[in-house]
Specification:
The structure holds two protein chains of two kinds. By secondary structure, chain A is α/β, with parallel strands linked by helices. Chain A is built from eleven helices and twelve strands. The radius of gyration of chain A is 21 Å and the shape is globular. By secondary structure, chain B is mostly helical. The two termini of chain B are 36 Å apart. In chain B, 39% of the residues are buried. The chains are: A alpha/beta, B mainly alpha. Chains A and B meet through α2, β6, α3, α6 and α7 of A and α6 and α7 of B.
Chain lengths: 330, 289
């Protein structure tokens, strides 16, 4: 593939709260090549969204960012506001979880789409309109001409998410960050939206980061998966390898918590007991240890490093990796 | 993974233009506002009697073909004074909230979006303004700059700024953290663009509704100030000063206070009705909930 597009080195995000410093993202290293897909998986509050905001440099004003976010050879954290703005306009785009709030409620879809296009591609109004219709057709919206005159509330949730994707794609980004793009949608629409994202990604050869709490979402679609827990990446591997031999107990627990269609009725769902640790009071040892069924004294005493074992591209942070994981078909 | 193949062509319904029945009251309100505005605008060229010409022999005259609505305590034509007074009331009533809308709206938008020290400064100074007794302020301005319509408009407009600032800031605060603003920022929109294209159209709806309310309130306040003698300088007529002058002959000719009061009441009501209806029609979010 064509080289590294995004490389995150030792990124940490600190949020000051009344209860003390909250470390939302804890020394994360990631990299992504052009045209590839990275899945970031983890439960609520584990720092997925903060990590994506750190990449986009859209953190809350009080947040402190450490480390380097290299995008296309530039450190985004060091970039002046004007340069950052131009870079965002050209190369970065984001799709959010809730299409209800990610579109401006008082402007028509046509206005929102055409203004973005006119701004970025410097087209006149009629060319921008033509381009908008092409984009809406590309994201699978029937009768796009009529849609242009409508307001967001006149479209369904799936339709709105398609429109949000069309707006994100309008500037031909090199990197698209999809922050839980299907969480607010129902299951049949989820598959459509994910397929749409995958198709447009291939066509435009853009890199994509899918953030989700659902391992099933990334299973067939991401090239690489990073599992996050309490602000840290605890396991990172190519998708195939991860699902075949997961090493981290947390990943296993996440997968076990997905309801299975072939399970007998009234089978209790194996939820992960307990809650993530309080991020304002970091633990001395492994942050998953209090909830882990393999935990030993060593886990509570020291933090395991993220390192690779038998396979160089399969990294995990655990003292007691699961060795004999049953192969679970992805 | 076996997923349902659902990429069937979906039906899209033609957006149906709903025709809304606006009702008699709305059209009556529009008619009344137009009538008052046209009469006030063309007052100088209408065949009216001079509103300041006194006829001491015909004081408090009853309705007649010469004086359609009679004369006031100084023998001036009541109808003519009502129409010329409408001009004053409308000018002040529309211009003063406009000052509040522009300055207060802009300050609130900037404070709600940029937050930080600027917001503290704006909110703090507005609190100071609110704590200052408005009548003292009006007295001071009138004493130094004199009694005139521009000064009156300025006083009322200035006093309206904090309220508009608060409405605009509150609306901005809830909107500025919404995802469409972050999405715009992620697409490289500048601050000016986010403020003008993303936030302003959203904030404008509540501000406009508040503006129409402001028009109604300002007409009444202008009346009160004129009633107290702080409004338009005599012998110029305004509805408020007419009510004030009519007070002296309340026992013998109550109509002198009553007529301008009715005119003011109907006009204020008309503005409120139109404002409510317009907001209901133009608010695209009504179907969203």
């Amino acid at each position: 593939m064509s080289g590294v597009l995004l490389s995150i080195r030792d990124v940490a995000v600190d949020l000051p709260t009344p209860r003390g410093n909250l470390r939302a993202v804890d020394h994360v290293d990631l990299s992504l090549e052009a045209g590839r897909t990275l899945g970031i998986v983890g439960e609520s509050g584990c720092g997925k969204t903060m990590l994506s905001r750190a990449i986009l440099q859209l953190l809350p004003k009080k947040a402190k960012l450490a480390g380097r976010v290299m995008f296309d050879g530039q450190d985004l954290a060091q970039l002046a506001p004007e340069g950052l703005r131009r870079l965002r306009a050209r190369d970065l785009a984001v799709v959010f979880q809730d299409p209800m709030t990610s579109l401006n409620p008082v402007l028509t879809i046509g206005t929102q789409l055409m203004e973005t296009i006119q701004e970025h591609l410097e087209l006149d109004a009629s060319a921008a309109k033509k381009r908008s219709i092409e984009l809406l057709t590309a994201v699978g919206i029937p009768a796009p001409e009529q849609r242009l005159a409508q307001y967001p509330h006149q479209c369904s949730g799936g339709m709105r998410q398609r429109i949000a994707i069309a707006i994100a794609l309008s500037c031909e980004p090199k990197l698209l960050i999809a922050d839980e793009p299907t969480t607010a949608l129902d299951v049949t629409i989820q598959a459509q939206i994910l397929d749409l994202l995958a198709r447009e990604q291939r066509r435009r050869h853009m890199a994509m980061i899918i953030i989700t709490h659902d391992l099933g979402v990334v299973a067939g679609r991401a090239d690489e998966v990073a599992v996050m827990y309490a602000g840290r990446v605890v396991e990172r591997a190519p998708t195939q390898a991860l699902f075949k031999h997961m090493h981290m107990p947390y990943t296993e627990a996440l997968l076990a918590a997905i309801p299975k269609l072939d399970a007998a009725p009234h089978t209790p769902l194996p939820a992960i007991s307990g809650r993530p640790p309080d991020p304002t009071r970091p633990l001395k040892g492994c942050s998953f240890a209090p909830r882990c069924r393999y935990a030993t004294n060593r886990c509570h005493e020291a933090k395991p490093e993220l390192k690779s074992a038998e396979m160089p591209d399969h990294l995990y942070a655990c003292f007691h990796p699961i060795q004999m994981a049953e192969g679970i078909g992805a | 993974m076996a997923t349902l193949e659902l990429s069937l062509p979906e039906e899209v319904e033609q957006p149906v233009r709903r025709r809304r029945r606006l009702g008699f009251l709305f059209w009556f309100a529009i008619f009344w506002i137009l009538l008052v505005v046209v009469l006030a605008m063309f007052a100088p060229i209408l065949p009216l009697q001079n509103p300041v010409d006194m006829d001491m022999l015909e004081r408090r005259a009853w309705f007649s073909s010469e004086h359609w609505l009679g004369t006031d305590g100084l023998g001036r034509d009541e109808l003519s004074r009502l129409i010329f007074g409408a001009g004053v009331s409308l000018t002040v009533g529309l211009c003063a909230p406009m000052i509040g809308l522009t300055i207060g709206g802009a300050l609130g938008l900037l404070a709600g979006y940029f937050r930080g020290r600027f917001e503290t400064l704006v909110v703090g100074s507005m609190d100071v303004l609110l704590a200052f007794p408005p009548l003292i302020f009006a007295l001071a301005i009138v004493a130094y700059l004199g009694q005139s319509i521009p000064n009156l408009t300025f006083i009322l407009g200035f006093l309206g700024i904090p309220a508009f600032m608060r409405v605009s800031r509150a609306a901005t605060l809830t909107l500025a953290r919404r995802e469409f603003v972050i999405a715009a920022e992620a697409l490289g929109a500048s601050h000016a663009r986010i403020l003008l294209r993303e936030l302003l159209p959203n904030v404008f709806l509540p501000l406009f509704a508040f503006f129409l309310l402001g028009v109604a309130v300002t007409i009444v306040v202008e009346g009160s100030l004129s009633f107290l003698g702080l409004g338009v300088p005599p012998p110029m007529a305004s509805w408020g000063s007419m009510i004030g002058e009519g007070r002296e002959s309340l026992e013998v000719a109550p109509r002198l206070a009553f007529l301008p009061a009715v005119a003011m009441f109907v006009t204020v009501l008309a503005f409120n009705l139109v404002g409510d209806t317009l907001r209901a029609i133009t608010d695209p979010r009504q179907g969203a909930l």
